[in-house]
């Protein structure tokens, strides 16, 4: 039985520059303090914010890049059980189809960098990103997949629940 933990809903937005490098944020706060992740944040559930609205808002707040929902492709939904032992997360992963022109200014959340996929494989990133998020991005970024990750075991157990084929 899974522990009774808070459940949070968030988005991650995978953004590239014109050279095809990924924009990552070196997190200055928990969760993921001291590791590189795509941008994102928690849904404002009190206002009824949708995952797309959250992705648009977080993209502008964190990077200054103004996007519309049609600039985003929802490619994955992942339920993480007991991430870092203290929270269950439901995450919506988006690929931004609009490239970002330059490196955004650092923010209170952390500092930005552009990296190739090969470089990201060698960087300090969260275990779930290494085990699931980046492989999901590589394989499904133009499709849709629903997964769950059991973070109560090591290595993290990833289960694919459904894959929608490319149209």
Name a few traits of the molecule:
6-stranded mixed sheet; alpha+beta; 19% helix; 167 residues; Nucleoside Triphosphate Pyrophosphohydrolase; 3-stranded antiparallel sheet
Write the layout of secondary structure elements.
Layout: E1 7-14, E2 22-27, E3 36-37, E4 39-42, H1 51-63, E5 72-83, E6 87-96, E7 110-115, H2 117-120, H3 127-140, E8 144-150, E9 157-164
Parallel strand pairs: 1-6, 5-8
Antiparallel strand pairs: 1-4, 2-3, 2-7, 5-6, 8-9
What is this entry, summarized?
The protein is an alpha+beta fold.
Describe this structure in words.
It is built from three helices and nine strands; from the N terminus they run ββββαβββααββ. The protein is an alpha+beta fold. It is globular and about 40 Å long.
Radius of gyration, in Å, reads: 15 Å
Major sheet size, sense and barrel closure? 6 strands, mixed
Q: Please tell me the CATH architecture by its name.
A: Alpha-Beta Complex
Give the low-pLDDT segments: none
Helices and strands, in order, run as EEEEHEEEHHEE
Compute the average pLDDT.
92
The CATH C-level name is Alpha Beta
Oligomer: single chain
Q: Assign the CATH superfamily.
A: Nucleoside Triphosphate Pyrophosphohydrolase
Tally the helices.
Answer: 3
Strand arrangement, major sheet: 4-1-6-5-8-9
- Could you please say which CATH topology applies here? Nucleoside Triphosphate Pyrophosphohydrolase
Query: How many strands in all?
Result: 9
Helix content: 10-25%
Strand content: 35-45%
Instruction: Kindly name the structural category.
Output: alpha+beta
Q: Total domains, how many?
A: 1
Through-space gap between termini: 38 Å
Which geometry do the CA atoms define?
Answer: globular
